[in-house]
Specification:
Strand content: 15-25%
Helix content: 40-55%
Number of strands: 7
Radius of gyration: 21 Å
Order of helices and strands: HEHHEEEEHHEHEH
Structural class: alpha+beta
Strand order of the largest sheet: 1-2-3-4
Number of domains: 2
Amino acid sequence: MSQPVDRAVQARRGMRHPLLFQQRFGEQNFWPALLLLALSAGLLIWHPASLDAYRTLVRLVALAAGLILVLTFTFRLRAYVQCRPDSLHMQLPLYHLDIPYVQITTVRPTDLFRLFPPAQLKWPEQRFLSSLFHETVVVIEMDDLPRSALWLRLWMSKYVLCPEKPGFVLAVRDWLAFRNELDEFRARQRRR
């Protein structure tokens, strides 16, 4: 009985497409935070007498590592793009943005390494993007950004902002399904 309701909701809203940049950020921080948590928890349980003076510091490290684990997991779940009836909804961990379809001029796929050539990036940036370089991303070009570029850079990675023209670079796992869905929602908006 819940299937007709789910289809109705699906017709009003598209699927949630997780953002790969946020997933990569979570993957990069997960293992070091887990290792720090395990080491500090082990030291607290073992409780050697020589570390009594540093017990508070070890507790702080365990608390910080646990918080990083929880935040990376939560942020990973909260970062997605979704087509809505009148706009493209971009949910970032601490900010959300609605991009009206009428402001979108072009939607095109491209490879990430074409937008951000590895030779022009610093070593930490190359390392962060290394697993995503050969991913196809969806570039949404606009005449103007919905907010100032400076404001948007406070809330999102510089790799989400298109370097060539005003717009956004959306790296999602199934870029073809996302692009088809976006084209369908834009066509519905134009028909209205």
